[in-house]
Amino acid sequence: MNYYHEKTKFYVAVDCIIFGFSEGRLNLLLLKRNFEPSKGQWSLMGGFVRDGESVDEAAKRVLQEMTGLGNVFMEQVSAFGEVERDPGERVISVAYYALININAYDRELVQSHNAFWIDINELPELIFDHQEMLERARNLIKQKASSQPIGFNLLPKLFTLTQLQTLYEAIYGEAFDKRNFRKRIAEMKFIEMTDKIDKAGSKRGARLYKMNKAAYRKDRKFKL
């Protein structure tokens, strides 16, 4: 007799905690559910793992189906398996967080899923254990952002130092001293000044910078 035949079978799902950065604010992409269970409530973007698909592949597929984006920064957070976490069925979910450029996603696709960007400081109540997933993801981001340049995934290719500082202030929820922050950035040789100027904020404009990924892979020195 097959050993697995007598065992109880469960559903396996993935939930994607999708972060974006806009106008100095960290945002989360949330779904206003138009299906049961919990129709009309807010949830993370998710779906079930398909036959012949790994959980990593499922998370990447869900992200692409929801936003149109592939090859983005994504990491696993944890598995969530409380017995009654989902009122529909016994579902074990593996959560992932993704950091995307908020200007690069497919807007029509996101709208078709009834999804919206919401300021991380103004979030509605989330269904099931999605709030716990979010909190764990934010803690992971804070831990990694101080020693690895993961935050740059939230920025456009060219950015100002003010944008960079406000991004990290949004991640950590605290203000940084401008002089000290820029001194630390100046020590990171892979953050390069370009000859381009951003004049969106003022007539004088601000110098645009870029991250040299090849230089970072050589150096590997990042500390905020």
Name some characteristics of this structure.
alpha+beta, seven-stranded mixed sheet
What order do the helices and strands come in, and which of them pair?
Elements: E1 11-22, E2 25-32, E3 42-43, E4 45-48, H1 55-67, E5 73-80, E6 91-99, H2 107-112, E7 115-119, H3 130-145, H4 161-172, H5 178-186, E8 191-198, E9 206-211, H6 213-219
Parallel strand pairs: 1-6
Antiparallel strand pairs: 1-2, 1-4, 2-3, 2-7, 5-6, 8-9
Walk me through this protein's architecture:
The protein is of the alpha+beta class. Helices cover 28% and strands 28% of the residues. It is built from six helices and nine strands. The strands form two sheets. Strands 1, 2, 3, 4, 5, 6 and 7 form a seven-stranded mixed β-sheet that branches. The longest helix is centred in the middle third of the chain and has 16 residues, at 130-145. The N and C termini lie far apart (58 Å). The model has no long low-confidence stretch (mean pLDDT 94).
Series of secondary-structure elements, N-terminal to C-terminal: EEEEHEEHEHHHEEH
DSSP strand content: 25-35%
Structural class computed from helices and strand pairing: alpha+beta
Assembly type: single chain
Please report the total strand number as a whole number.
Answer: 9
**Secondary structure: helix percent:** 25-40%
First-residue to last-residue Cα separation: 58 Å
Instruction: Please report the number of helical segments.
Output: 6
Please describe the biggest sheet, giving its number of strands, its sense, and whether it closes into a barrel.
7 strands, mixed
Shape: elongated
Mean pLDDT across residues? 94
Query: How large is the radius of gyration?
Result: 20 Å
Unreliable stretches (pLDDT < 50, length at least 5) are none
